[in-house]
Amino acid sequence: MHPFRAAVEARDVNAALDLLAEDVVFRSPVVFSPYRGRDAVAPILHAVFQVFEDFRYVREIGSDGAADHALVFQANVGGRQVEGSDFLHTSEDGTITELTVMVRPLSAVIALAEAMQARLAPAAGADRGMSGS
Question: Which has the least CB within 10 A, 7, 25, 90, 94?
Fold first, then answer.
C-alpha cells in the first residue's frame, strides 16, 4: 500500500502533507493552472478532507518501489457520487513531486468545485477561483 493511501485512509492530513515534496506540483480537477509547493497545496488538502464524504480507495495501481501510482477512489460530494483517481509521481527519496486528481462525472466535478470554492474562497480571498483560470 502506498504511504499516501495509508495516510488518507487514516484521515491523517498532516501525514499526507508530510509525504509531499516542498516543490510538489498539484493539478486539480477543477482549476486549469497547477498549484506549486506544499504550502499552496496544504489548504486544498485540508478542504478535501472536509468536502469528500464516505471517501474510500477501491483500487491501487503501481508496483512497490515504482515512481508512479494511481489510486482509484469513490466518495460523495454534496449528494453526488464521485469516482476519481489520484495520480502520484514520487522522487527517488520517496516524496511525492506530482499529484494529479481526476474526477467524474461532470455533475460531481461541478459539486466538488462549488464545495471547494466555498471552503477556500474566504481563506484565499477568492483570488484563484475555481473557474478554470
Answer: 94
Residues 104/83, Cβ–Cβ less than 8 Å: yes
Place of cell 506549486: 36
Beta bridge partners of 27: 100
Q: pLDDT for 69-106, tens place per residue? A: 999 999 999 888 999 999 999 999 999 999 999 999 99
Q: What are φ and ψ of residue 45, in 5° steps?
A: -65, -40
What number of other Cβ atoms are within 10 A of residue 23's Cβ? 11
- Residues whose CB falls within 8 Å of the CB of residue 122, separated by 6 or more in sequence, listed in order: none
CA gap 25, 17 in Å, rounded:
13
Q: What is the mean pLDDT of residues 52-60?
A: 94
